[in-house]
Specification:
single chain, 118 residues, Trna Endonuclease, Chain: A, domain 1, 5-stranded mixed sheet, 30% helix, 39% strand
Length: 118
């Protein structure tokens, strides 16, 4: 299984986990010129942008550590575009979560980082 297939498999696993936790998934792999957001959904009335990261071992650090400040800024830019395209005002509550998978351990980090303006 190549890296792309493994990533798709892990995203599928995370989607099933989030659905079972009550998240309403509205979009997967939202892409635009600025980048991509893996999963977008609602936790109650809160719009949530999920970044999924997987690491099979500790050789390259933990999965959560891979969502560094540069990646966070990119996710925020894509989230801005998503809200613009969908006509959402700044009054829509939103947050940025990371679902980190290290080996077989899945960890959902709510409010993993805060919005970083352009």
């Amino acid at each position: 299984m190549n890296t792309h297939e493994k990533g798709a498999q892990k995203e599928e696993q995370v989607c099933a986990y989030l659905l079972s936790a009550g998240i309403t998934v509205t979009e997967r792999n939202f892409r635009c010129r600025q980048g991509e957001i893996d999963i977008i959904g609602y936790d109650g009335d809160t719009l949530v942008f999920f970044e999924v990261k997987y690491r099979s071992g500790a050789g390259r650090g933990s999965a959560a550590e891979a969502v560094n400040p540069a990646k966070q800024r990119k996710i925020c830019r894509v989230a801005d575009y998503y809200r613009l395209v969908h006509g959402m005002t700044s009054g829509v509550p939103s947050r940025f979560d990371v679902v980190a998978i290290d080996g077989g351990r899945l960890r959902w980090i709510k409010n993993a980082f805060y919005y970083i303006p352009r």
